[in-house]
Amino acid sequence: MDWLVNMLLPVAAGIVLGVIPPALYAASKRRGFQERLEEQEKRIGELSGRIPVDEVQARLADCRAEAAEALRQSLAQQAAAHQAELADADSKAGVELDLGLERSMAEHAAQLAQLRSALTSEHGNLKSDVESLMGLVRMVERWHDEMQLILSNNRMLKDQNEKFSSIVKSVVMLALNASIEAARAGEAGRGFAVVADGVRDLAYTSTALAKEFKQNLDKNDLVTTTTFQDLQASGNLIRTAVFGLTTSADRMLATTAKFD
Amino acid sequence: MISANAVASIEWLFEKALRDNNIPGPEDNCVVRVKAHMPPTDTSTTHRLVVLNISSYVFRIVALFDFDTDAATVAHLSKIMSRGDEIHEERVLLDTVGEFANRICGEVNRGLSASFRHVGMSTPFILEETCLSYLSILKPSQVRMFEVAINDAVRFEVIVCICVDSETSLDFQTDRSVHEETSSGELELF
Asked: Beta partners for B65?
């Protein structure tokens, strides 16, 4: 019997030790679940007293629509007020602008009339000066006539020089003949030979002088002609420039006349 | 003081004008040569020297045309200037050589007008050929001599004196493409 007790006792102790801790753990778990359940039931109770989400959204939409309408009306009123102010300002500016433009146009018209009058007067002076300057042509013609006189005089001098050269050549021949005759006369003609040689030397000097004179007349022809031509060409240059100025002045006057 | 470009431009304008005005027909040819030295002065009575002046504020060009009035030259001038037998009269011959020189200088004058707003030209004058010996009296800055040969039968010389003040500077360049397009043909009236 004892051996049975000895054998069952450890078994019973094992059973006791194996069952009690899980039972304690399960009891503790059950209490936790119970608390959470109670808490959730409490929250369900709270939530069941609130407004549903759909209704909240509907109400929000109504509020937004009302606010938007109020804002639109306010903006429309402000816009109308601004429009009215703008129209008023525009009208005032238009009137001022018209007045300013009229004043400016009147001033410009007066200035233009003054300018046109001054231009017309200057154009008249210019025309008169140009006509006067055209007298340059007559001046160049006068120079031409004077140059022709100089050239004609040069030609006459050349002719005279040629005649002089011809006479000198004859004198040389005469002096030569005189020398021959003096040689024939012998001792009696010795004095005459000296005179003949002297005349011949003078004739040679005269020939050289006549040649030099001819060269100077040629130089004179060249300088006189080219100097006159320079004056004539410059006169043409000035005349062309003056014509150009007249044309420009006429064009300017015609341009201002277009604005009459 | 005259630049090399200015001398080359004037030289080119004269060469062109001489060529343009010396070819009477398509079968004719004209050669213009620039000579290094002055030709010896020929004092024979058949020579005619025509002088013409082109002036601006800054320069002056004296052009001298030296013609031998032999039969071939007179025939050429007659053809070029459309003259009849009356060219054999001394007065008509002098008028013709003057007009011929005027025509060439007129083209040069027009060419110069592209570079200079104000340029003027004189009328031609006849001088004795012996005057050529005294060109130094004009104090030219540059002298150019052109020998013109037409069909190898007619020859004449043109001496161009470019005079510029020692205190003035002359520098320009002719736009050759423009002048090649606008060919000559106009007569310079005087």
From this structure: B50, B158
Torsion sign over Cα A32, A37, A38, A44: positive
In Å, what is the CA distance from A61 to each residue of A54, A57, A72? Answer: 11, 6, 16
Which of B 11-40 lie inside 8 A of A, CB atoms?
Answer: none
Q: Is B56 on the interface with A (CB under 8 A)?
A: yes
Tens digits of residue pLDDT in B2-49: 999 999 999 999 999 999 998 878 888 899 999 866 666 666 667 889
DSSP code for B123: -
Q: d(Cα B140, Cα B62) in Å, to the nearest integer? A: 9
Query: What is the rounded (10 degree) CA torsion for A141, A143, A146, A151?
Result: -100
What structural domains does chain B harbor? 4-166 (3.40.1550.10)
CB contact under 8 A, A221 and B123: no
Structure tokens at A31: 């209490």
Strands B154-163 and B60-68: antiparallel
Residue A217 near chain B (CB below 8 Å): no
Min Cα–Cα distance to chain A from B175, Å: 22
| DSSP type of residue A162 | H
- Tokens 């001098």, residue? A157
Helix (H) or strand (E) holding B51: strand B47-55
CB contact under 8 A, A232 and B62: no
CA distance A77 to A163: 123
Considering only residues B188 and A146, tell me which one the structure prediction assigns the higher pLDDT.
A146
Alpha helices in chain A (DSSP H): 2-47, 53-133, 135-184, 190-257
Contact B120 A233 (CB under 8 A): yes
Considering only the C-alpha atoms of chain B, give the largest distance between any 2 of them, rounded to a whole number of Å: 50
Highest mean pLDDT among B25-39, B82-96, B131-145: B131-145
Token pair for residue A9?
A: 């006792």
Sequence-distant (≥ 6) Cβ neighbours of residue A178 within 8 angstroms: A192, A193, A195, A196, A199
Cβ atoms of residues B119 and B55 within 8 Å: yes
Residue B34: DSSP 8-state: E
Cβ contact A175:A199 at 8 Å: yes
Can you say how many angstroms the Cα of residue B168 is from the centroid of all Cα atoms in its chain? 24
Is the CB of B120 inside 8 Å of chain A's CB atoms? yes
